[in-house]
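[Automated response] Your request has been received and processed.

Submitted sequence:
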Amino acid sequence: MKVVVEADGGSRGNPGPAGYGAVVRDAVSGEVLAERYGGLGHVTNNVAEYQGLIAGLRAAGELGAESVEVRMDSKLVVEQMSGRWQVKHPSMKPLAAEARGLAAGFGQVGYSWIPREKNKDADRLANRAMDEQAGLTKPAAPAPAPASWSGAGGTPTRFHLLRHGQTELSVGRRYSGRGNPPLTEVGRGQVAAAAQRMAKVEDIKAVVSSPLGRTRETAEAVATALGAEVVVVDGLIETDFGAWEGLTFTEAASRDPELHRRWLGDTSVAPPGGESFDAVHQRVRQARNSLIAEYGGVDVVVVSHVTPIKTLLRMALDVGPSLLFRLHLDLASLSVAEFYPDGHASVRLVNDTSHLG
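Generated structure:
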């Protein structure tokens, strides 16, 4: 689905009482699919403009959009997000990073400047936010959330996120992406324990897996315990670490010191011959949307790898890419995330290994 995001923000005083507004439209029909607005307290115009963009991108993601055209009357934000201007102000940098993280979840994103008179709907929402914040008007009753993904009403799709069992590469703490090492004897024991645990969960309707052998073997054990079949989803595959496959952290840093340093701080950077975390985020988001369309409103076991599982948790928590570097996931660990049809989400469990004894 292709959408247009119109975003705006304003500050009465600059800095002063501020608010943002965003409208998401169907790119073909022009139909309004979502509106977002909110007060921001005492900030600058530029901060408010970025918050409008972030709200619009977030709403587009909740709707399952794949292609986004952003239209704003802030030349600063448009030029910075297009990469033509640098982000120099300290207060802008985290906002720009958050917006880029959200944008990475779409297949295509474009930015266009429009005159203020053509951005009147987003401007209206930003002014409504400022008026409500100042007590000049009463808050409007919330509009009903638009249907998204599966149309499953208020029932969430619950993902039981299971990491595969141990392999020789994981024992050696080596980058393990598209390689296909088998489970070790310890790994098979971990998988058996995980399968016993999942067999006790009621109402699981499907077991889906990354295509790699270590996840397929893990998923097959779970599916056997549940009396189900494994559905392979290519989008759940681990990051392609390219030339760093099989290397330790230290070995990769010694091989490509400057690139490795940049990779650790910029999710758009890819290993040599490999895949960036932004690219992983994009394909995992598409896989998630497809799974919700197929299994909306039910429980699904998702057997995958560290990065895709962290990415799904990041989406549920609605946080930036720093989570990828700050969250630890053990082998054969279980996490649970719920995605609601109105775009909300919740995380119920993270990195639980109690079944491993």
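Summary generated for your ticket: Residues 277-295 form the longest helix (19 residues). The CA atoms of residues 209 and 303 lie 5 Å apart.
If you did not submit this request, please reply to this message.
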